[in-house]
Inverse folding.
């Protein structure tokens, strides 16, 4: 990262110098090549091009960053430029006069007149002022771009940290729930407990190694959910209807999704499941509808005054925050409780899942 920043700074300096040379020297050079006059009349424009370049560079590399950006001292910035340009407007004509190349109006071949100095200040002094203004504009433009890039990097880093924190909240819940299920099986079905432990080890491997990546193929996430459901079935009553409609579809191997994005909803379906009248079921589905990937989790629950609090807490807020961070403006997340059925539905646009 430091190397990249250094390369950008070096590139910015090179561009600044190139712009100065192009603006101040190119017109003089073209004029010089297009005339067969003696070279000494070109001494004045070449010298002024050099001085304009000097004023541009000293503002770009020194005065603007130190006086305006660091110290925010507009007064000293303007004063310094005024002194430099004033000194140039006085010293250069005197020096040119001593060399015999200062331009004079007809009938005034010797001596510098006040009108001559005024003309020089208007023509070349304004050019030097414009040079300082150009340096100011380019340097501030560069600093603004640098600040904007830094803010984007900072936002990306905060987003990464927040996602890591959200994922860290998932892992203990998943592990505790799974271990409780296996513990319940050990007493009356050790063979099934052994099989469940094997499945759990594979799922933990996925969570440790695969979920550290920004995305995984949707097919891997689908298989993880199926393994989780199979593990949870071990302690469920045979009266409970559990359906998992997640077919092995070729498009699932082409799409990429953030790992474990659906885990909290699946966990909630099993955690808050309860018979409701004659219904006791858990239903999960993962399909494509038009240009959206749709995940739906439904489960029966026992209606009570506290049931709303049980299924609308930290878990759903966690899901919503993840989706807002990862898929802003390209997803919808809805959940509802009606007639003893809890439904959670996530839709993500397919275009945001294609890499």
């Amino acid at each position: 990262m430091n190397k990249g920043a250094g390369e950008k700074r070096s590139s910015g300096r090179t561009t600044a110098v190139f712009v100065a040379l192009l603006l101040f020297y190119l017109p003089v050079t073209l004029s010089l090549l297009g005339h067969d006059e003696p070279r000494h009349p070109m001494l004045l424009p070449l010298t002024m091009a050099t001085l304009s370049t000097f004023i541009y560079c000293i503002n770009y590399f020194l005065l603007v960053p130190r006086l305006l950006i660091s110290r925010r001292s507009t007064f000293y910035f303007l004063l310094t430029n005024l002194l430099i340009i004033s000194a140039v407007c006085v010293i250069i004509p005197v020096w040119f006069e001593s060399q015999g190349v200062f331009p004079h109006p007809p009938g005034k071949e010797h001596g510098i007149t006040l009108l001559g100095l005024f003309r020089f200040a208007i023509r070349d002094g304004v050019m030097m002022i414009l040079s300082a203004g150009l340096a100011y504009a380019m340097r501030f433009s560069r600093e603004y771009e640098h600040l904007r890039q830094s803010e984007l990097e900072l936002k990306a880093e905060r987003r990464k940290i927040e996602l890591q924190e959200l994922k860290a909240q998932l892992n203990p819940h998943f592990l505790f729930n799974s271990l409780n299920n296996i513990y319940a099986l050990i007493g009356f079905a050790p063979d099934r407990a052994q099989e469940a432990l094997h499945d759990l080890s594979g799922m933990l491997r996925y969570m440790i190694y695969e979920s550290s990546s920004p995305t995984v193929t949707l097919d891997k996430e689908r298989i993880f959910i199926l393994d989780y459901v199979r593990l949870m079935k071990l302690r469920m009553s045979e009266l409970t209807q559990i359906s998992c409609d997640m077919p092995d579809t070729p498009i699932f191997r082409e799409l990429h999704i953030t790992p474990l994005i659906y885990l909290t909803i699946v966990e909630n379906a099993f955690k808050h499941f309860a018979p409701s009248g004659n219904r006791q079921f858990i239903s999960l589905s993962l399909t494509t509808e038009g240009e959206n990937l749709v995940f739906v989790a439904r489960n029966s629950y026992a209606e009570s005054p506290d049931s709303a609090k049980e299924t609308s807490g930290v878990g759903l807020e966690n899901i919503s925050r993840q989706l807002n961070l990862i898929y802003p403006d390209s997803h919808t997340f809805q959940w509802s409780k009606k007639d003893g059925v809890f439904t959670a539905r996530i839709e993500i646009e397919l275009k945001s899942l294609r890499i």
Remarks:
- The chain has a mean pLDDT of 78.
